[in-house]
Amino acid sequence: MATSNERTPLAERVEQLLAEDGPLAIVAAGDPVLRRAAEPFDGQLEPALLARFVEALRVTMHAAPGVGLAAPQVGVPLRIAVIEDPAPVPQEVRIARGRVPQPFRVLVNPAYEPAGESRAAFFEGCLSVPGWQAVVARHAEVRLTGQDEHGRAVDEVFTGWPARIVQHETDHLDGTLYLDRAEPRSLSSDEAMARRWAQPTPAAAAAALGFDLP
Ligand code: ZN
User: Fold this and answer.
1) How far is the CA of 3 from the centre of ligand 1 (A)?
2) 3-class secondary structure for 32-100?
3) Of 59, 155, 161, 180, which alpha carbon lies 20 to 30 A from 104's?
4) pLDDT tens per residue, range 197-214
5) C-alpha torsion sign, points 112, 38, 81, 93
């Protein structure tokens, strides 16, 4: 906990970011902030500043648009992320991917572990790696522990697409990008995704590009 009235260096950094209105700039791959483990959140931002920062993350995620955003992606190395997915997808995609709506949530100091053996492989992308997507096999179900933005303990099982989102965002806080876990031969431009690989599952892409699915 911050125990004095002095602002921490991270608080100064966040104040600077929030000095301008509108979405924050998103850091792209190649910046070391995306490759370091973020600091556990322990009061470095006082409650009012934390609330303003979380709101800025939400606005930035919506503007991108994306379904999750981790603090290091705006250059702040703290273990905080936001998620929200209205899941505006066709029914067949919803069923194949388990892409159900995920309400807005703030993840503070999140950690996950698999809940079961099952894995699911789908294309995903990252706001810090614009223009590309790749197939990542992830735990189909995870148990997420940590806190919310009010410091309340969280211990919850996520399945389907929300499980993918919480794994992707928590990985960011450990300096891991989705590409580290991706099937390299699946790497596809946004154009190729739109033109060829919009199917509910990556089966056709796996056959055509030559990679395995779990
Ligand atoms: Zn990402």
Assistant:
1) 33
2) HHHCCCCECCCCCCCHHHHHHHHHHHHHHHHHCCCCEEEHHHHCCCECEEEEEECCCCCHHHHHHHCCC
3) 180
4) 999 999 999 999 999 999
5) negative
Position 3: which residue type? T
Q: For the domain that residue 45 is a member of, what is the CATH number?
A: 3.90.45.10
Q: Which of 124, 141, 169, 183 is catalytic?
A: 169
Whether residue 1 is contained in a domain is answered as no
Residue 160 domain boundaries = 9-209
Q: What's the 204 CA to ligand 1 centre distance in angstroms?
A: 25
Q: Tell me how many domains the chain contains.
A: 1
Annotated active-site residue 113? The verdict is no
Residue 83 tokens read as 């998620």
Residue 46 lies in a domain: yes
Query: Is 214 a member of any domain?
Result: no
Q: What tens digit of pLDDT does each residue of 92-118 get?
A: 999 999 999 999 999 999 999 999 999
Listed residues: CB within 5 A of ion ligand 1: 126
> Whole-prediction pTM value?
0.96
Within a domain: 3: no
Residue 154 alpha carbon to ligand 1 centre in Å: 22
Q: How far is the CA of 129 from the centre of ligand 1 (A)?
A: 7
